[in-house]
Structures are given as C-alpha cells and as structure tokens.
User: Fold this.
Amino acid sequence: MQKKLIITSSPHIRDGVTTRRIMQEVCLALAPAGIAGIVLFGVSAAKLIAISVLSCVLFEYLYQKLTNQKIAVGDWSAVVTGLLLAYNLPANAPVWIPIIGGAIAMILVKGIFGGLGSNFMNPALTARAVMFVSWGTIMGSYPATNYMVDATSSATPLSVLANGGTVSISQLLIGNIPGVLGETCKIAIILGGLYLILRGIIDWKIPVCFIGTVFLLYLCKDGFQMAVCEILSGALMLGAFFMATDYVTSPVSNLGRIIMGVGCGILLFVIRAFANYPEGCSFAILFMNVMTPLIDRFTVPKIFGEVKKHA
Amino acid sequence: MNVYLSMLIGFLLVNNYVMCQFFGICPFLGVSKKFDTALGMGMAVTFVITLASFITWLIQYYLLTPFNLGYLQTIAFILVIAVLVQVVENALKKLSFSLYQALGVYLPLITTNCVVLAVAINNITDGWNLLEATFSGCCSALGFTLALLLLACIRERLELSNMPKWMQGSPGALITAGLMAISFMGFGGLI
Amino acid sequence: MHKKQNFLSVFLNGLIVENPTFVLMLGMCPTLGITTQAMNGVGMGLATTFVLVFSNLFISLLRNIIPDKVRIPSYIVIIASFVTLIDLMMQAFLPDLRASLGTYIPLITVNCIIFARAESFAAKNPPILSIADGLGMGLGFTVSITLLSCIRELFGSGTIFGLQMMPEAYQPMAVMNQVPGGFITLGLMMILVNFIRLAIQNKNSRKEAAA
Assistant:
C-alpha cells in the first residue's frame, strides 16, 4: 500500500525543532524534582535516573535502527520518558528494573505502534504499571530518605493516612518522606509544573481539574486537613503536571481536557479509598488514556463545513 | 455496599468479562474495527444477554433443579440461547424493522459469543435471585460493550498512525487489548 | 483448481496451513484464558480435540439428514452433548485439571473453532475426512496453546510443566499470568507469524519477477 499523503494523529506538528524544544523545556521543568530526589535518597537515585534515561534512548535508537526507520532520538522525547520512568521507581530498586522498564516503554508501548504521536498510553506510566503488577514487592517497598529521624520506618504517608495516622504538611512539601524517588518533593514538582504552564507548554486545565477533584472529594469525605495531606501525598502532583498532560494521550478539546482531569481525579479517589492498591495515580491516568479516543470522539468540535445529518 | 451498585461497578470495571476474565474475545477482536459496528454489536449483545439471563434462570430453577437434571445445564442453556437469538431476530424483523437493520447482522454471531453462556452459568454458580441475575446479565453486557467501544475508538485512531506492516491487523489489536487490560488492573479489590 | 483431498493433506491443513489459533484466529477465549500453565494448555487442547473429532464425525454422518433450517440448533446440541460427556469424564477422572480449567470446559460448546469446522467442513465432507479435519484442527489448537502456555509459564512462574527452568535469581514476572500478559504474548507471537507470512510473500513475488 503506497501512501502518498501520510496522515497521523495529533500532534500534527512534526517539526523536529518544535518537538525538541518542547521536550527540552519538559526536561528542564523535571530537573528540580530529580535534584531533590538525589539530595534526599543519595547516589542510588542518581544511578537509577541515569540508567533509565540511557536505556530509553538506547532502546528507541536500536528499535528505529532495526526497523529501518528515521532515527528520531534527537527529539528528546525518549529522555523525558526515561526521566518520568526513573521518578516512579523506589530509590533502592535493582538496576535491571529501569532497563526492562525502558524496553517496555520505548518498544512495546511506543515503537511498535509507530513512534511518537502514535502511542495511545503514556509509555513511562504503562511500563511502571506493568512492573508494579509484576514485581509488587520491589516496586512497592519505599526506602526512607537520608534525613528522616526514624530511618527504619518506610510507611508512606498514604499508608499512614489510610491507617488513620497523621503526617506533617511541611515534611510532605519538602519531601522528607518515604516514596518513589522523584515524587516526594512537592515544592520542586509544583515549581516545574508552574514553569510549564507559564511557558504555555502544558494546559492548566488537566492538572487543576485533576488536583481540584481529588481535593473536593477528600474535603467531603475527611475534612480540610486530610484533604490537603492527600493531595500532597503519593504521585498525584507528578502525575497531574507531567503525565496526565502528555499531548499524545490526552484529549484535544478544552471540554475533553476538563473531562480527563475530573475523570482522573474521581478514579484516583476511588482507587485510593476503596481498592487494593494504596496509590491509584498511575492506573487512573492510564484508564483515562484509554478513554481519550472515546472522549475525543464526543467532544471534538464540529468539523468546519460538515453538514449536520438529519436523524 | 448495595448489591446492585457493586454489581454495576464490578462488571463494568473490576470483573469486566473481557478485560479481566477473557470471555468474548472473538467478537471483541472481530468487530472492533469500526466504532459504529462496535456500538451495534454491543447493543445486540446487551439485549440478548439480559433476556438470556432471565430465561436461563427460570429454566434452571423451575426445570433442571426440580427434575434433577443439573448435568444437562450446558445443553439446555446453549439451546435456549440459540433459540432465543433466532426468536429475537425474527421478532425484531416483524416488530421494528429499523432496529432489525441496525442489529440484525450481529445477532447470529451472538450464539457463539461465550460471554452469553458464561454469564448464564455464573449466575447460577453465584446463586443470584431472578432480579439479581437479570441485572448482572445487563451489567456484564454493558461491560462487554464498554471494552468493545474503547478498543474500537483506539483502533480507529491507530488506523491513521504509521504502524509497521507486521503490526497491522491482529497483532495490533491484541497488544492494544493487552495494554488496555493493564489499565483495568488498578481497580482490583474495589468491591 | 480443486486440489485432491486425502486424510494426510486435510490433517496437515488443520495442523499448520490453517492453524486455528495463528491463522484463523478462532477460539481466542480458551487460548488466552487458561494458558498460564503448560499442563492446562495440553488438557484444554486435548479436550477440545476430543469434542472436535466426534462432533465433526457425527455432523458429517448426519449431514444429509439435518434440514438446513435447523442446522445451527442441531449442531449445537451435538457439540454440547460431547462437551457434557468430556466434562463429566474429567470431573470423575481428572478433578484437579477440571478445577483449574473451570468454566472454560462447558464453554468449549461455544468455542468458535468447533462451530466453524462443523459449518465449513463437516457439513460438506465425508466422515473419514471430517475426522482428519477434526484431528488436525484439534492438534493444531493443542500445539499452539501449549506453546503459548509454555512461554507464559516460563516468564510468569519460571517453570515449564512445573519444572524449574529459570535460574534461582529470576524474579517471576507476575503480569504474564494475568490478562494483559496473555494478550501481549499472543500479540507478539502474531507479529512473528506476520513476519514469516510477509517473508514468504516477498520470496514468492521475487520468484515471479525472476520468472
């Protein structure tokens, strides 16, 4: 089948320079959270970030080389995926975890569907979910930070909250809590997220609706104090700013994006409050990724010039 | 939690027959190329399963159990389903031709959709009463429809992407379904 | 051009050329549902083969008696009878295997391989050939799902037929035992099948170009 005109799904801007600039901005915005992770968890965090980024770039390069495609590693999207993947790992994970994760993300989720713009789920999150389901004990045991007073306890704020305990909001903000390496320091993540919104790289609607919905639902359930703790715990901030907003896997229209944000919020609340897993951020976003084509179908503005069919 | 609410959430998300239990895979892969066909199939299946759940329940408790014919369950149920599909098809043709035109082509395929038989058997195994069994049938069918529509939307979008030649067709559909199933796994333990 | 059919050619057709899993894509539910253990694959495959051979034989014997209008209910009753037979036999002699295959045993009734073969082969061919078709298709199905379940068991539990295959340090990849693993493994195997098919096509077209 000879295709003269290759039509691809959004984003239509395939200009290397533009994609590259956007991805570089995202990397910049992700940097504070990574630095905070290295400061909090030490050298092992740095090692995991480096391996994860390297393996993502390498797997994308190898896949494109083997299938005789144009090498598109220069667009930095593999670096972003690698960073996000690493930020979702506990700092004491063995080195083969980011390598397998990189292969799943770059080949299974992105490459074989046609590369950037063709994947329907966020590669880093999908890889994380696959590994979480497979190796729950490795992916779900979080080490304490280097500065915690009680270094033996590795209960995450979410499990403390779920068991009726309390956590200090200031500790949550700085990130001096057990957790995966890139999500603990909320100040760094919020700074990065705000930077992206101000630069116009991401749309404010998804993160605001996402976090807002979770806050409101917990406000109704447990009151103000708990609601603040809940939105500052777990992967919510990282997910809302950096993963739910992925261009490729989120809806196109404004209404669609609001639905996406609210939907993620409701699912996250439901999974956190009622399901097996203590944290539902990645599964909530993945489920909404799957819903995205359906949402797009019903929210995309009328095509200009289309005649309305009479029922 | 209310048994009906937990049934609805259960069969839509947590124990979705297609995404979490591997039933009805053939129509799931076969009629998910276009959104409109998927919608038609989903509606037809919902209609038949709801009705079949109702009738097979009556057959089990008023015919098979009293006469100790439990071992004939599979034969009795599949016969009911086959006849039901035929009756529904003929009835629709007479009563509502427009609905028949919308659903007609999918009806014969439903006989071999294993969700129908699986739901009928599971209703009895789980010991629901008549109303619960009918409702569980309806919810299971809606879960099937949800999975089918989601896959159809994604496949329509993938049609436009530059997937390699060896991925087009069944491999693409299977791997897409696998990735979708991962996103359904987060709901484990919800009910 | 009608090729002459004999027992062997029909048997091989079912086993390889029109392999029900990889070529016809039929009977996907048991293919994915029970293939977490190699033993399940063999058990399911042989149970299906049994039903397929006997339903093919009987439908072929009765092909001139069953009126066309009621053929679908008639086929279903024949198939369901043999399924009930094997179900009761397994409950009596192999209760453990029956328990691990669960609802999938009664569901052999609606396995579309059996239906498709009844409709497209047994209803048109004499009994001996129909048995060959049933055997070929059934064993083709058995081999495919055993292969699939070996792969899934190897990565999901580190074993094949219950024997330890992976080194001690291997951490079993639990997702392979669950729904996503089934879909993805079969998807990857289908990619391989597509590769082979495309390679054969290329070769043939090169041959034609050379000729």
The CA atoms of residues 124 and 166 of chain A lie 31 Å apart.
